[in-house]
Amino acid sequence: MLGIVASGPILGSAARAAPTWRPVGDTAAIVLRATDVFSRHSPLVGMPTTLSDSVGQAVHHPGPLEFWVIAAGQMVWDHRIAPMLAVAAVNALAVVAVVVMAGWLAGRNGRLVAALVMVLCTWSLRGEILIDPYNPYAAWLPLGAFGVAVVVAASGRLWALPIAVLAGSYAAQAHVSLVVPVAATTMVVLGFAGITALRTGTGSSEVVARARSGVRAQWRPLVAAGIAMALVWSPVALDMVTGRKNLWTLVGAAGSDDPVVGLSRAWDLVSHALVFPPWLTAERSTFELVGPAGGARQLAALALLAIAIIFAGTQLRHRPTLSLLVAVGLAGLGGGMVAASRIPDQVLSIYALHNFLWLWPFTAMLWVGMVACGLASLVDRTAPHRDDQTPPAPVAARGAVIGFQLALALGIVAVAVIGSDGSAARTGLLAPRHGPATGAVADQVAADLPPGSTVVVDVRADLEQSAVSMGLVHELERRGLEALVPPMWEGSFGSHRAHDTEAVDTLLVPLLGSEPVAAPFPDWDLIAAHDPDQAALDELAAANDAIMARIDAADGLVVVDRPRISPESARPMVRRGELLGLVRLDLVISPEIPPATFARYARAQEGPVLYVRVFEASGA
């Protein structure tokens, strides 16, 4: 029950998104590739990664496990929201698994603490990030379940091992940035197991006690873990034997000499997250996380790490599981920092939140482990010695425990209820911005073309245009048309959907704009159109006016390294949304824009306010 309550933000986000959700952008390509799983075009690797730019050839995320999950969901229910519900179900199961496994370790208190931490993590990211099949969004909660599962398995509860294999494989295959944290965590746990095996003569460790009697008696979970490992990595192995050997290409791309973020900026990222954990607020932006960390922030982060290591050391002999929890948190953060340091030094990569979602589970594990070790040390110091004849105060102690549990339970319910309301979800996500328009123009295109028609959809390297275009490919295929894409998108959609745009009779060109877009050429026919809702346009105009009132009052806009911009010149910048990046990067010197005013501006600008036109370029 606690696990289900802790999944409240996930369930609430799914319920709120379901009426209008449609896959767009990369999510649409993911969903289409999932439809290939039970065919001769079944993918052996994951989605393409931005590392492709570093090596000049297609490089994919490690494996197709997420495609399998979505394909299973679509087999159960062939509906447009089935992929979203499949991912939501996996994430909810991850939360439930964490709560259950924490109970295996620490009983009711463990379940309560785990439920509170998980509900905080999901509350802070409520909305599309919890439910969208976009591969880095889909991986971070299974990554958290993996971290807890390896700790539980190392403590001797071996049925956590198959969970660790499945959850860790799911995360590592979905996004290459999670391979290093998973590998680092695995090595730390194996090292811990080796150390405890050498200490079998001490008799003081719960791990040793279980290891002596449990391995032969618990062969079933070991076999289950082995079978799971072989199954989920079989397509990757097949690709290494018969395919493009994607894993070797990934290794080569990771060692590229192209400009990358670097360890210094990656440490800034970790410093921010350690001192002020991202799961304590729903307003934490990527721009704040990746900004430079001052000397005081870095010293505070180093102090926290030192405290965590010292506290973990005090419990290494008598409560090694708590020490391992801290070690896994440290390993995950260290591995994530190394992976983040290799991110290409490009704006879209640096400020993409999905590259840093590993911070949520691993900072949570570190903080929980550190606090638990600290409290355990305090109890050890204050508890009466065995030869002390002073009787304990069982009533007071039991009352304190009950009060603690009640407070945790109330906190879990409160955060779950608040998090279940998706109205405060993060803005700037593609599905709510472009999903309704994509469905509307797909209906019009399908009605205009004969059933079974073959068309090529022009997908361009533009975030907004490609979101609608890729979504249109998915929607048209669902409606029985054969929708193809230009050859440069073969990695995303599969080679069987790639087609030369110059060798087709019908080319569909979606175009987007803040105003209705006219046909670029006289012989292009308008085949579908979607206009934004008037209420959204009115809110956008009001939000723009609120920003302009500040600029007018300050007699212009002052931006770092630019001359003063007059109100007349600033007005089109505000209307086009250019102020979003300037404010988030802290480049605006004047005027000072109140947070509430800017938040309204961001919500309006990043809402469904673009005009969409689809043109048919026959004979192109």
Describe the structure in your own words.
With 620 residues, this protein is mainly alpha-helical. The chain is 61% helix and 5% strand. The chain has helices spanning 2-6, 8-17, 25-35, 52-55, 65-76, 82-124, 135-154, 160-174, 179-198, 206-214, 219-232, 234-242, 246-254, 263-275, 286-289, 295-314, 320-341, 347-350, 359-382, 394-419, 430-448, 463-478, 490-493, 534-553, 567-576, 579-584, 595-605, and strands spanning 454-457, 482-484, 507-513, 525-530, 558-559, 588-590, 611-616. The chain has a five-stranded mixed beta sheet with strand order 2-1-3-7-4. Strands 5-6 form a two-stranded antiparallel ribbon. α6 packs across α7 (135-154) and α14 (263-275) crosses α17 (320-341). The longest helix is centred in the first third of the chain and has 43 residues, at 82-124. It is globular.
Nearest-angstrom radius of gyration? Answer: 26 Å
Backbone structural class: mainly alpha
Q: What percent of the residues sit in helical stretches (DSSP H or I)?
A: 55-70%
Strand content: 5-15%
Low-confidence parts: none
| N-C termini distance | 59 Å
